[in-house]
Amino acid sequence: MATLDYYDPSWGVNAYYSRENNALVTLNAYLQPPIFNHDFPAPFNYAGIGVTLGHELTHAFDAWGSYYDAEGKYNNDWLLPDIRRKFQERKQCFVKQYGDIKVQVDGTLLSINGSLTANENIADNGGLIAAFNAFQLLKQKVNYPKHVFNGLRQYNDEQLFFIHYAYRK
Fold this sequence. Notes:
The protein is mainly alpha-helical. It has a single domain, classed as Collagenase (Catalytic Domain) (3-Layer(aba) Sandwich). The chain is built from 4 helices and 4 strands, in the order ββααββαα. The chain has helices at 42-58, 81-99, 114-139, 157-168, and strands spanning 15-18, 23-26, 102-105, 108-111. The strands form 2 sheets. It has a two-stranded antiparallel ribbon with strand order 1-2. Strands 3-4 form a two-stranded antiparallel ribbon. α1 (42-58) packs across α3 and α1 (42-58) packs across α4 (157-168). The longest helix is centred in the last third of the chain and has 26 residues, at 114-139. The chain is globular. The two termini are 35 Å apart. The relative contact order is 0.15.
């Protein structure tokens, strides 16, 4: 087994994708509430650690990660040019969407530079979609339990997923 170079101390609270190692790294301290708890119901864990894992794995295919192959070596040729072009076209949708966000702070109108935040915005969206889809697949299993919580009885599992997603942010 190959060794993995850590970029954070083992007690750090972080998860990240390492292009050079083609590896998803989740430090132990990160696997704590509200991100993960073995006793949490599925909607909470999928909205917590599921979204994080999906986010980090999306970085393997973003504007930087897509230039590294399965061995973590820089390789400009492994992704078909048509696929790379389509990614760039779709990336521009994120650049525009986030660039159009305006927030007024102390009387000054501020905006996000969508080009600078594109990889993180794509990973945030990709992680959320992947985790929610995985959660929906889990619910199709025969023995999936119905979750009932005091104070949250009015919410279904999908609503609980998004409530926890908002809480963890």
